[in-house]
């Protein structure tokens, strides 16, 4: 059963099955305009657009010398940018007390794998090299992403297990070859996100079928996850990606990686970055904030 807020959101949304010829320029413009129009941006003490060795990034710093979240937005590797997630990043920075470095990675299909993942890695390297001038504490950097952004955070951790101190994966897409119960039972128009959508996104991001099983592309297929950073994995009950996210959390825990999995009951894909609309988003952000406080405290002890 959908939570009432989710039912309302799905009823008001256009369901796109991802098939046929699509006008990406028009869709991206409409997506951007909708995101900019629907929310109120709250103040953060310091916000700056910067260049991270060729990768556009935006720094949100609620106060000086805080730890840093590397934030990677979702959108199927095809949609969204720094502006579409600006309101939420401001909210998240103030709610957690951590600085955020949001990454404006190159988008598919113009820039397929590995370009988006390379951009995230470049931004992290740049962040660590410039922490002092940015007035942030880069001795503690965690990664956070939603959907395809969570895929990029997980992929970065597979590529370089020591890159991040912690990973927060919000309804992550983790297996290009997934054949799960949730892909079958939750792939319905009433949930606003169907299997044809994710299939289309994978076609844009990784056109080569041979590459899709690579661990940094499909982290759920990594042979050994024991050396990966601890994780918080957030899923939505009525999301076709639910099972692969929870399977990944189970694999991490089974390998001895400190892991928490949290399922938002009654929720569909996309609730995370809309705290002004969904109670579950505010609850998830509070969970993230508490987790990060505990992480910082444990490293100080």
First-to-last CA distance: 43 Å
Task: Name the poorly predicted regions.
Answer: none
Q: Give average pLDDT, whole number.
A: 92
Biggest sheet character: 8 strands, mixed
Strand order of the largest sheet: 1-2-4-3-5-6-7-8
As a whole number of angstroms, the C-alpha radius of gyration is 18 Å
List how many beta strands DSSP finds.
8
Please, how many helices? Answer: 10
Helix-and-strand structural type: alpha/beta
Global geometry: globular
Would you summarize the structure shown here?
With 301 residues, the protein is of the alpha/beta class. It has helices spanning 4-12, 24-38, 86-96, 115-129, 131-134, 148-159, 181-185, 195-205, 242-254, 279-300, and strands at residues 46-52, 55-61, 68-72, 99-103, 141-146, 166-170, 231-238, 259-268.
Characterization of the model:
The chain is α/β, with parallel strands linked by helices. It contains 10 helices and 8 strands. Strand 3 (68-72), helix 3 and strand 4 form a beta-alpha-beta unit. Helix 4 packs across helix 6. The chain is globular, with a radius of gyration of 18 Å. The termini are far apart.
Which descriptors would you attach to this protein?
single chain, 301 residues, alpha/beta, 8 strands
What is the strand and helix layout of this fold?
Layout lengths: L3 H9 L11 H15 L7 E7 L2 E7 L6 E5 L13 H11 L2 E5 L11 H15 L1 H4 L6 E6 L1 H12 L6 E5 L10 H5 L9 H11 L25 E8 L3 H13 L4 E10 L10 H22 L1
